[in-house]
Design brief:
The complex is a heterodimer of chains A (401) and B (229).
Chain A (H helix, E strand, L loop, with lengths): L1 H14 L2 E5 L3 H12 L3 E5 L15 E2 L3 H4 L3 H17 L4 E2 L3 E5 L2 H16 L5 E4 H7 L9 E5 L2 E3 L3 H12 L3 E3 L2 E9 L2 E9 L4 E6 L2 E4 L5 H6 L7 E12 L6 E4 L8 E5 L2 E5 L15 H14 L8 E12 L6 E5 L2 E5 L8 E6 L5 H15 L17 H5 L3
Parallel strand pairs in A: 1-2, 1-13, 2-9, 5-15, 13-21
Antiparallel strand pairs in A: 3-8, 4-8, 5-7, 6-7, 10-11, 11-12, 14-17, 14-18, 15-16, 16-17, 19-20, 20-21
Helix pairs in contact in A: 2-7, 2-10
Chain B lengths: L1 E7 L5 E7 L6 H11 L19 E4 L2 E4 L12 E4 L6 E3 L2 E2 L2 H5 L8 E3 L16 E3 L7 H5 L1 H4 L12 H13 L4 H8 L13 H5 L6 H16 L3
Parallel strand pairs in B: 1-5
Antiparallel strand pairs in B: 1-2, 3-4, 3-5, 6-7, 8-9
Helix pairs in contact in B: 5-8
The chains are: A alpha+beta (401), B alpha+beta (229).
The complex binds flavin-adenine dinucleotide, iron/sulfur cluster (SF4) and FE2/S2 (inorganic) cluster.
């Protein structure tokens, strides 16, 4: 009873706490949805169309976690948990066709045992298939492979999955403002008090007051922190992807080796996407697709799915990950690739930066950030996103006009 | 190589930009370049950059295209780019797709069985291979539809439009049990009977959805149900 009453009181307090989230990618979408469900008064600000940063452009692999299992059991386990959860709350945004890791060389054969042990340790169902068995499921794979390991990978709609989060958040009262850029984060003394934005629809600047500001600007996170006067060095690290025409396979096909360039083929609709590469740049707005990457990706993808080498080119593009330059004093690494910085450590209370992660685990990232915020504010408000089915992506646009 | 891009903004104002291009540079790449180097406030929609999300449609040299899969080198210069009609313009080249989505059948699934590798057996863990539908909800078909446009940017007759009607067709095909619920919703002058059979939608669709064919099939289904037995 006592805890129920406390929770009701805390929900009332949350309704008076205005949170501004900067960045309308998957991370911003999930934080917005989570905090809105917990009762906070949330506004999300995105400078372009929703998901026009890194989020809309990734391969669309729904990671079972197998790719990370050998290096990082924690992220691998988190991926698998989220695959199960997304299957319940957003099944419409997933082609759940499983994936095959192919052992192409003698080294891969040796790596296979380590890989399967790591998958099992992380709770990822995995099964070794002879190449004959694997070809029965996926005739397009390289028949020269020694064997394959089957894992619950899939394809997600990089655009529509986050839109489902936005649609649900808006239906629950959140305010989403696209084509609106944050120009500065304001503070009074040591506390963030709001943001100044330019709304490109009207070309007017305005101040949006806030009690909490969350920077979820992905590879632009360093720029946004700079607009609050905080040094958060982030190096944007773009990677190239290539799509060829034709759904050459139904399953995600990966190379059974430690993650490297050009080692996954992700089918989606009637396309096959090969990725990726990695280099570093200064500005995520100034990345051009290197033409050399296109040829090397098609060649490497062809080692996994031979028909890819002769398939008709469809598109080549890049997306940038944010590489953390250094950890600030307030950084809390939640897993290898998600960090939450509470900038109180940099002299600015109520300002947080969330950097990194994977599109697959967006919901978990939203939960992690919201848990930290509730704990910092001493609010006992549990997360309910794992059991809340999301609205269709179409609801997001239907609400307008 | 360089290319000249002339942007005719929603408000009518025109601006010209020269951009560096290569063999693979798309119209969307050119817009990104203009925004990062020359006009920081240029508004346009984009997300996936490979023809899957459906946000990036524009009218380029009079043709409706997805800017992310249209190579600049294949377009006559200067490339004249306008926002998709007849949608409300948010600013510059960015439109609000709400009218497109408002006519889709409620919760029509975007998944379907996959036809790729028809002889393959799915692993025991899944009932069958699935994939997302072809339609990416880009609105190019609606933009070109003479019923919806009436000429220029002027609004046409009330009409649910080819994209939404095609979605009805797919939903009924996949879920015949929904026929009784869904067919009456489109058996109306603004439903399948609003189509003038200009067939422009089927020609423009970048994903080969053939909405006009879907509409004709729905008309047949309605007629067949009404025919005396
Ligand atoms: C090459 C590549 C391939 C990948 N493949 C996969 C995959 O297959 N599966 C998977 O699960 N994950 C994948 N990822 C990871 C995934 O894409 C990212 O984890 C995820 O998209 C990050 O989302 P985000 O919201 O943090 O960042 P973003 O999506 O970049 O969102 C940040 C947003 O902030 C906005 N913004 C910037 N500055 C401002 C400002 N001043 N005011 C307002 N808004 C602003 C930007 O416009 C942008 O939309 C891949 C990543 C890369 C780079
Ligand atoms: S039917 Fe074709 S043109 Fe129309 S919205 Fe769908 S994909 Fe776009
Ligand atoms: S940006 Fe997604 S279809 Fe063009």
């Amino acid at each position: 009873m006592g805890s129920d009453r406390r929770r009701a009181g805390d929900a009332g307090r949350a309704a008076d706490i205005r949170v501004v989230i900067i960045g309308g990618g998957g991370t911003g979408a999930a934080i917005l949805h989570d905090l809105t469900l917990r009762g906070f008064a949330c506004t999300m600000v995105e400078r372009g169309e929703l998901t026009s940063g890194t989020t809309g452009r990734h391969h669309g692999q729904l990671h079972s976690g197998a790719r990370y299992a050998v290096g990082d059991e924690e992220i691998a386990r988190e991926c698998m948990d989220e695959v199960r959860i997304l299957g319940r709350i957003a099944p419409e945004s997933i082609e759940m066709n499983y994936g095959l890791f192919l052992a192409l060389s003698e080294n891969d054969v040796t790596y296979g045992d380590t890989f399967q042990e790591a998958c099992s340790a992380a709770g990822i169902p995995n099964r070794r298939l002879s190449i004959e068995e694997a070809l029965r499921h996926e005739p397009a794979i390289n028949p020269q492979a020694h064997f394959a390991v089957l894992v619950p990978d899939g394809t997600l709609d990089a655009y529509r999955l986050p839109l489902q989060f936005f649609a649900t958040a808006v239906a629950n009262g959140a305010d989403v403002r696209s084509f609106t850029e944050v120009l500065s984060v304001e503070s009074s003394g040591v506390a963030a008090t709001g943001v100044t934005v330019i709304d490109y629809r009207t070309r007017r600047k305005e101040r949006v007051p806030a009690d909490v500001v969350i920077n979820a600007a992905g590879p632009w996170g360093g720029q946004v922190a700079g607009r609050a006067g905080i040094d958060l060095p982030i190096t944007p690290a773009p990677g190239t992807m290539v799509a060829v025409k034709g759904r050459l396979c139904n399953m995600v096909v990966s190379h059974l080796h430690p993650p490297g360039d050009g080692d996954i083929v992700v089918p989606q609709r009637r396309l096959s996407v090969v990725g990726t590469t990695q280099w570093e740049t200064d500005d995520p707005d100034r990345i051009r697709t290197p033409e050399g990457d296109i040829r090397s990706l098609i060649r490497r993808g062809g080692e996994l799915v031979p028909t890819l080498a002769d398939a008709e080119f469809h598109a080549a593009w890049t997306a940038a990950r944010p590489l953390a330059g250094r950890s600030s004093a307030g950084g809390r690494a939640l897993s290898r690739d998600l960090e939450v910085y509470a900038h109180a450590a940099d002299g600015l209370d109520n300002f947080y930066s969330v950097i990194g992660g994977k599109a697959t685990v967006l919901r978990a990232m939203g939960q992690a950030v919201s848990d930290i915020l509730c704990s910092d504010l001493d609010l006992n408000l549990p997360c309910t996103t794992a059991t809340t089915p999301l609205l269709s992506h179409r609801h997001y646009f239907r609400r307008a006009s | 190589m360089t290319a000249m891009i002339r942007i005719i903004r929603g408000g009518g104002e025109q601006s010209e930009f020269t951009v560096e291009t290569g063999e693979f540079t798309t119209l969307l790449d050119a817009l990104e370049e203009i925004r990062s180097e020359q006009d920081g406030g240029l508004l346009y929609r984009h997300s996936c950059h490979h023809g899957s999300c459906g946000t990036c449609g524009v009218i380029a040299n009079g043709k409706r295209v997805l800017s992310c899969v249209t190579r600049v080198s294949k377009l006559e210069q200067p490339v004249e780019v306008r926002p998709l009609t007849p949608y409300p313009v948010i600013g510059d080249l960015a439109i609000d797709p709400a009218p497109l989505y408002s006519e889709f059948p409620d919760d029509a699934s975007i998944l379907r069985p996959s036809e790729a590798q028809p002889d393959a057996t799915p692993p025991a863990e899944i009932p069958g291979f699935t994939r997302f539908e072809n339609c990416i909800e880009c609105g190019l078909c609606e933009s070109v539809c003479p019923v919806l446009r009436a000429g220029g940017a002027a609004p046409g007759r009330p009409f649910k439009g080819p994209a939404a009607l095609a979605a009805y067709g797919r939903e009924i095909e996949k879920h015949p049990e929904r026929t009784d619920e869904l067919l009456p919703e489109i058996d109306s002058p603004d439903g399948v009977w609003g189509c003038d059979r200009a067939l422009e939608c089927s020609r423009v669709c970048p994903l080969e959805v053939y909405p006009a064919k879907q509409i004709a099939v729905l008309q047949q289904k309605i007629r067949a149900r009404k025919a005396p037995v």
